[in-house]
Amino acid sequence: MNPQAAGAEIHGERCRASLAELDERVDVVDIFRRSDAAGAHVDEAIEIGARAVWMQLDVIDEAAAERARAAGLEVVMDRCPAIEVRRLGV
């Protein structure tokens, strides 16, 4: 997802402006945006029925996280997947 590059192609995949444009099921929405933009993407994740949202390092939106939890999504906030994978030895 890249709202600014919607319609462009990266590595043969078309960029889309929103999660609603996807045809396949999404398990985890990884949000790598400023905190003030994260809430809108959390709301999109809730709307499409994602199972979880992951907000990257320094991306913190407590209100959005609470909305996601209330909708039944798992929430990870202010964490980097690459760091966590190494830490957990996965």
Name the descriptors.
3-stranded parallel beta sheet; two-stranded antiparallel sheet; 34% helix; single chain; 5 strands; 90 residues
Overview of this protein structure:
A hairpin with a 2-residue loop joins strand 1 (9-10) and strand 2. The protein has helices at 35-48, 62-70, 81-88; strands at residues 9-10, 13-14, 28-31, 52-55, 74-76. It has 90 residues and is α/β, with parallel strands linked by helices. It is built from three helices and five strands. The chain is globular. It has a three-stranded parallel β-sheet, covered by helices on one side. It has a two-stranded antiparallel ribbon with strand order 1-2. Helix 1 (35-48) packs parallel to helix 2. The mean pLDDT is 91. The longest helix is centred in the middle third of the chain and has 14 residues, at 35-48.
Please state roughly what percent of the residues sit in beta strands, choosing from under 5%, 5-15%, 15-25%, 25-35%, 35-45% or over 45%: 15-25%
H-E string: EEEHEHEH
Profile the largest sheet.
3 strands, parallel
- Strand order, main sheet: write it out: 3-4-5
**CA-based shape:** globular
Number-wise, the strands total 5
Q: What is the CA-atom radius of gyration, in angstroms?
A: 13 Å
**Helical region count?**
3
Q: Between the first and last Cα atoms, what is the distance in angstroms? A: 26 Å
Give the overall average pLDDT.
91
Q: Work out the helicity level.
A: 25-40%
Low-confidence stretches: none
Based on secondary structure, the structural category is alpha/beta
